[in-house]
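Subject: Sanity check before I submit

Could someone independently write out the C-alpha cells for this chain? I want to compare against mine line by line before I put it in a report. The sequence has 529 residues.
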Amino acid sequence: MKCATVHRLRRREFSHELIKRASGLPERELLSRLSYLKNAELLYERNIYPCSTYVFKHALTREVVYDSLLTRRKKQLHERIGQVMEQLYRNNLSEHSDVLAEHFIKSENFEKGAEFAKMAGKKARKRSAYGDAISYTYKELFCLEKIPHRPEAQKRILDARVALANYCMNLNDHVEAYEVVSPIADLALRINYRRGLPAIYTAIGSYLLFVEEDYVQGMEYMVQALEFSEETKDFFSRWNACYIMGTALSWNCDFQKSLDCFQKSLDLSMAAQSPMGISSAKINTGVNYLFQGKIDQAHQISREALDIADASGDIYIQGMAHSCYGTACSYRGYFEEAEDHLLRGIGFCEKTSHFTWGSWASAFLGDLYFDLGSFEKSVESYQKAFSFLEKKRFGPSWLNLIRVAIARARVMQGSLEISLDEVLKSFSQNKNKGFSGWIAQYTAEILFHLNEKLVPQAREWADRAAELNRQNGMQLLLGRDYLLSARIWKRMGDPARAREELIRALEIFQQCGADGCLKKARQELAGFV
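---
Independent answer below. Compare away.
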C-alpha cells in the first residue's frame, strides 16, 4: 500500500488502477485501506469507483510519509511504480514520460530514466515549453553519464548535448548553448560526428556573434555550420544557421545578404510545411525592413507572420509575431494597436521565457511611450527590456542601447542625476554596427534636454548620428536625426537651417511610410509658418 501513497506525482493524483497494480493488494483489502485513509482525512477521492483517483489532502502529509521510508525501500517503490506505469500506459507512454522519468531516475534505473527524460523533452518541445525541454534533457544527460561508458553511450551523450543546445538556441540562450557544446566540440570533430557538427558550430558561432560580439570569427563558424548542415541534409541546422546568419547580417547593416538568408529559411520552411518556420522567417524579414526604414513592407510581412502564428496557436511564435507587428504599427502611427500587440508579445514571451523578443517588445514599447510623452511608462518599459537580458549575458551592445534609452527617458522626467560618462561609455563600448547611430541619437537627445550649455555638443552628436545612420542605411533613424537636428538649430537661433533639416526629415519619413513620424514632423513644420 505504501508504494501507492508515497510516490510524488507532479499532479499529486493517482488512479485506482495504478494503485491496485503497484500495491499488488487484493481489491477488497485495497478498498479497505483506501477507506481508512479517507476517513483519516489523509486522502480524498475524485470521480466514482472504479474510475476513482486519489489525492493527498495536504502536501506536507505526503512529504512526511515519503521521508519516513528508507532510501533502499524508496528506490524499490519508484522502480515498481515505473514498471506498473509502463504496463498501464504502454499505448501512450509519451503522455506520461515526465512522471516515468522521475520514477526511474529516483530508482537509479538510469537507462530507463534517460529514455523517458528524452521522451519528455521532445514532448515539451512540441508544445514550445523550451524551459521544460531543457530541464528534461539535463536529466537525460545526468542519467547517461551514470551509465557505464561504452561507445554507444558516448554517442548518446553527444546527441543529448546537441539536442540541449538546440533547445537553448530556440530561446536565444546562446551562453548556455555554448557551454553545453564546448566540452564536446573537439571530440565531435575528431570522431567525425557529422550529424552533430552543424548544431555545435552554430552554437559556438552564435555565442561569438551575440555574446562576445566577435562578428568576424562568429561568421566563420556560421559559414562552416551551414556547410556541415548542407552536407548532412540536416533541415533544422540548415534553417537555424540561415536564420542566425540573417540576424547577424541585419545587425551589421548588410541588409540584402540578410534578406537572402531569411529567404533560404523561408524556402526551407515552405518545403517542410512548417508554420513556425514560415512565421519566424517572415518576422525576421520584417525586422530587416524595420531597420532599413521600409515600414510598409515591414507592416505587411509582419501581419502575414502574425496571422500564421495565431492560426498555429503556438505561444512561442505568437510572442515574436506580436512583438514585430506591434513595432511596425508604432512606426505607422497606429499607436493603440501598437501598444496592444507589444503588450501581448511581452505576455507570451514571459510565458515561454523568450527573453530576447521579450526585451525587443519592451524596448519598443518604451519608445512608443516616449514618443507619446508618457515618460514614466517609458522608463518602466525600458527597465523591463533590460531585465529580460541582463541575466543572460546576451547582446552587450543591446544592453548599452537600453541603458542610454533609460537615461533619455529619465531626462525627460526632469532627472538631473544622469551620468554623462556612462552614456558616452555606452557609445564607445558598442560593437553593433546597427546600434551605433541609435546610441549617438539618444546621446544627442540627452544632451539637448539636460542642459542649455550642452546644446552645441548635442548638435555634434546629432551630426554624428546622422552620418552613421546614413552610412549604415538606417533610413528611419536618419529621418529622426534630421528631426532632432531641426529642434537643435531652432533653439540655437537658426530657423532657416532648422526648417531645412525638418524638410529633409519629412522627405525621409514619407519615403519610409513612417506615418507616425511624418505627422509629428508636419506639425513642427507648421510652427515655422
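---
OP: Matches mine. For the report I'm noting this point. The longest strand covers residues 43-46.
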